[in-house]
């Protein structure tokens, strides 16, 4: 049953990165579009992600619940030592979600719209950035349960070049996902022409910031690069992901929206898979070397058994209905 | 919302459709605020009480994982519901609205069950400071879950029913769209009123339950300092914690014994049975309890007034004083809910897991937690201001609907 729970945890993280990521990215794309067409982008965003965005963010809750029920030492370690980035990420989540709905449901469209837009776009940027920082901090080996002072316990654990580079990388991934996703929805050729170069810039940024992660790892003295290039499975994942990028560019021009989306999703899955495989089963790399892995910190016995069953039964209810929801609104986006 | 939608589908009443849409916008605004707060909650548990979660997570995780499922289903159903007008079979669409309500109720019950476990921890053995032989299902069905879940579910219906009815009553006083607002008022007050009438029964079950399980909480609620036979029920009063006395209260002899144990003579345990450092704060718990009960009583009286007037004195409902009573009652349901949570949470102190772990031992080691408290308080205060502002704008911008359709097909049969 432990394996079932681990599969669900990985699934929840992946789904959050893909679906939630495309969501965050929509805000980032809005941020980099010229003012003149922003209104148009907003409408497209709302009609495509409006019906499903609530569900997208449930994956994060699922992942967190799995962590605290199944792997309480991991959850506790995260929430103590990464307290500050977690709080900043939460503020982003609150601001973004509420601003997105408020701007649509405010019956009077006045200056308040500007406030909502501002909150929405900037928190769309902040949230994935800190998600990335947290992910980076987890594997950076800078978390130190025996830290002597405030700085090394609560700030040094996450404030270093490597984590920040992962944060930037995550933002780029989200923007990239959203750009590819939204292009499929644009029917107006003039706007499409505006979108494609931006999608390319975001793709390029994803590539560059991905490289920067390795550079930062080197500067911070992590052996990521060396380990990566000797680990053939995870390296081949990365290479495959890069190849996908070129194929994707080709299809973006001809505009096969389904193929583009699948490729982008597949590519991100590969990147996450590559890093996941690299560190598995370790979840948090601790300074002292007593790493927390999915095998040594799981709650054994009945808690894991019941959690596994709850997830299996829950997914019987959730997955078909979620699939039907996405399918229905893919075929015909919501009218406003 | 599902009720007015049902009425629309049955009677094809234009007003009911407009009402359904208006309420569903309210649901959407509340849902997103609830969803982000729910995300917050699952993080804050660890951000604030890591030591508690380290041990309690696997034990009381069951309701949380089920609650996650219910919440997920609610989100999916809401996606279908809000964006699904004229897209799906109309009864399927209506059904997704019902699912929104039911899964919302289910997640409420499950979260309350998790809180019930903190009051009445079961499903594990505590040996040498370790929590072993964990049984999450026994923890889910802890001794407190039923009484607490019943009380909270009724409270949710009462609070929402009264709040919605109050807003529509205000609109009725303003005099625009009268027929429409009457229909809205009736649906809301029937839900709220029935819940408010049932609530005292549920309260009585709860009182008898905590008299046995958490006598210290009951003693704090009633500012009952000394253990005594035929204990009096205290109404009002200012407890003097130093002198262990109560000033200015009304005491009904024997009534507390009766409420707690069903016997006017029986002994009720007082705070003197507990060491100083295991006593909950008396003052606030007592006041919060009085507020909750008082507001509950007002809602009950208003419900009786409504049902009586529908039955016998229909013309009362045309009077302004009648509507003003309900306008004034708009916030009291929610105030009662907050007061009730204050009672149950403060009454459990100093324990976070009743009898096993103290709250101060569960606290995060990070310094400066006050800053985080202030930030989140500010965020929530501004959120509630914005939500109220949005709802006000929604209501204000309702179009004039008088006379667009023959309005005299009000179904007099309520549920």
UniProtKB/TrEMBL annotation, chain A:
<feature type="transmembrane region" description="Helical">
    <location>
        <begin position="158"/>
        <end position="183"/>
    </location>
</feature>
<dbReference type="InterPro" id="IPR003317">
    <property type="entry name" value="Cyt-d_oxidase_su2"/>
</dbReference>
<dbReference type="GO" id="GO:0070069">
    <property type="term" value="C:cytochrome complex"/>
</dbReference>
<feature type="transmembrane region" description="Helical">
    <location>
        <begin position="259"/>
        <end position="280"/>
    </location>
</feature>
<protein>
    <submittedName>
        <fullName>Cytochrome bd-I ubiquinol oxidase subunit 2 apoprotein</fullName>
    </submittedName>
</protein>
<dbReference type="GO" id="GO:0009055">
    <property type="term" value="F:electron transfer activity"/>
</dbReference>
<feature type="transmembrane region" description="Helical">
    <location>
        <begin position="115"/>
        <end position="138"/>
    </location>
</feature>
<keyword id="KW-1133">Transmembrane helix</keyword>
<feature type="transmembrane region" description="Helical">
    <location>
        <begin position="6"/>
        <end position="32"/>
    </location>
</feature>
<dbReference type="GO" id="GO:0019646">
    <property type="term" value="P:aerobic electron transport chain"/>
</dbReference>
<dbReference type="Pfam" id="PF02322">
    <property type="entry name" value="Cyt_bd_oxida_II"/>
</dbReference>
<feature type="transmembrane region" description="Helical">
    <location>
        <begin position="232"/>
        <end position="252"/>
    </location>
</feature>
<comment type="similarity">
    <text>Belongs to the cytochrome ubiquinol oxidase subunit 2 family.</text>
</comment>
<keyword id="KW-1003">Cell membrane</keyword>
<dbReference type="GO" id="GO:0016682">
    <property type="term" value="F:oxidoreductase activity, acting on diphenols and related substances as donors, oxygen as acceptor"/>
</dbReference>
<feature type="transmembrane region" description="Helical">
    <location>
        <begin position="307"/>
        <end position="327"/>
    </location>
</feature>
<feature type="transmembrane region" description="Helical">
    <location>
        <begin position="195"/>
        <end position="217"/>
    </location>
</feature>
<keyword id="KW-0812">Transmembrane</keyword>
<feature type="transmembrane region" description="Helical">
    <location>
        <begin position="84"/>
        <end position="103"/>
    </location>
</feature>
<dbReference type="GO" id="GO:0005886">
    <property type="term" value="C:plasma membrane"/>
</dbReference>
<keyword id="KW-0472">Membrane</keyword>
<feature type="transmembrane region" description="Helical">
    <location>
        <begin position="58"/>
        <end position="78"/>
    </location>
</feature>
């Amino acid at each position: 049953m432990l394996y079932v729970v681990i599969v669900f945890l990985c699934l929840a993280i992946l789904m959050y990165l893909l679906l939630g990521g495309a969501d965050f990215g929509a805000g980032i794309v809005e941020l980099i579009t010229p003012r003149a067409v922003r209104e148009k982008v907003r409408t497209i965003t709302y009609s495509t992600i409006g019906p499903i965005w609530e569900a997208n963010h449930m994956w994060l809750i699922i992942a967190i619940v799995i962590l605290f029920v199944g792997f309480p030492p991991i959850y506790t370690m995260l929430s103590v030592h990464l307290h500050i980035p977690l709080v900043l990420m939460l503020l982003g989540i609150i601001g973004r979600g509420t601003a997105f709905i408020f701007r649509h449901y405010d019956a009077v469209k006045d200056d308040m719209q500007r406030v909502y837009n501002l909150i929405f776009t900037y928190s769309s940027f902040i949230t994935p950035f800190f998600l990335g920082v947290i992910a980076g901090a987890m594997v950076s080996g800078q978390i130190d349960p025996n830290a002597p002072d405030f700085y090394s316990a609560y700030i040094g654990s996450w404030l270093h070049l490597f984590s920040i580079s992962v944060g930037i990388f995550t933002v780029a991934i989200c923007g990239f996902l959203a750009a590819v996703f939204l292009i499929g929805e644009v029917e107006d050729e003039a706007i499409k022409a505006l979108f494609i170069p931006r999608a390319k810039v975001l793709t390029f940024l994803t590539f560059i910031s991905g490289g920067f992660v390795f550079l930062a790892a080197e500067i911070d003295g992590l052996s990521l690069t060396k380990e990566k290039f000797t680990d053939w499975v995870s390296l081949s994942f990365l290479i495959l992901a890069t190849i996908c990028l070129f194929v994707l560019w080709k299809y973006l021009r001809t505009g096969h929206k389904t193929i583009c989306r699948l490729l982008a999703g597949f590519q991100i899955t590969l990147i996450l898979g590559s890093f996941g495989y690299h560190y598995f089963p370790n979840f948090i790399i601790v300074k002292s070397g007593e790493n927390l892995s999915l095998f040594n910190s799981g709650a054994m016995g009945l808690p894991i058994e019941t959690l596994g069953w709850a997830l299996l039964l829950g997914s019987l209810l959730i997955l078909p209905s979620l699939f039907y929801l996405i399918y229905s609104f893919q075929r015909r986006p919501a009218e406003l | 919302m599902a009720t007015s939608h049902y009425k629309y589908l049955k009677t094809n009443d234009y007003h009911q459709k407009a009402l359904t849409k208006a309420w569903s916008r309210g649901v959407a605004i509340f849902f997103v605020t609830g969803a982000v707060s729910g995300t917050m909650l699952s993080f804050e548990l660890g951000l604030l009480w890591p030591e508690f979660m380290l041990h309690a997570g696997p034990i009381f995780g069951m309701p949380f994982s089920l609650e996650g499922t219910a919440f997920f289903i609610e989100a999916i159903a809401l996606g279908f519901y809000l964006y699904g007008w004229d897209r799906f079979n109309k009864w399927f669409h209506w059904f997704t609205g019902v699912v929104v309500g039911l899964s919302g109720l289910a997640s409420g019950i499950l979260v309350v069950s998790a809180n019930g476990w903190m009051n009445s921890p079961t499903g594990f053995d505590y040996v040498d400071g370790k929590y072993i032989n964990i049984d999450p299902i026994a923890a889910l069905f802890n001794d407190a879950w039923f009484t607490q879940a019943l009380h909270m579910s009724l409270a949710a219906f009462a609070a929402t029913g009264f709040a919605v009815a109050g807003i529509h009553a205000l609109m009725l006083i303003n005099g625009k769209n009268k027929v429409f607002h009457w229909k809205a008022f009736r649906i809301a007050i029937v839900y709220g009123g029935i819940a408010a009438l049932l609530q005292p029964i549920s309260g009585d079950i709860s009182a008898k339950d905590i008299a046995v399980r958490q006598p210290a909480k009951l003693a704090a609620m009633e500012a009952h300092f000394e253990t005594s036979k035929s204990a009096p029920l205290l109404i009002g009063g200012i407890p003097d914690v130093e002198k262990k006395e109560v000033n200015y209260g009304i005491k009904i002899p024997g009534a507390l014994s009766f409420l707690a144990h069903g016997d006017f003579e029986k002994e009720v345990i007082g705070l003197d049975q507990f060491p100083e450092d295991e006593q909950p704060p008396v003052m606030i718990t007592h006041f919060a309890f009085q507020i909750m009960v008082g507001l509950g009583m007002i809602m009950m009286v208003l419900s009786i007034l409504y049902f009586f007037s529908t039955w016998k004195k229909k013309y009362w409902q045309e009077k302004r004083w009648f509507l003003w009573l309900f306008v004034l009652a708009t916030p009291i349901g929610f105030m009662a809910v907050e007061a009730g949570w204050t009672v149950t949470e403060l009454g459990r102190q100093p324990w976070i897991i009743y009898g096993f772990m103290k709250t101060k031992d569960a606290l995060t080691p990070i310094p400066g937690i006050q800053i985080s408290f202030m930030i989140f308080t500010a965020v929530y205060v501004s959120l509630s201001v914005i939500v109220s502002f949005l709802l006000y704008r929604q209501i204000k911008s309702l179009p004039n609907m008088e006379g667009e359709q023959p309005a005299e097909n009000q179904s007099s049969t309520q549920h």
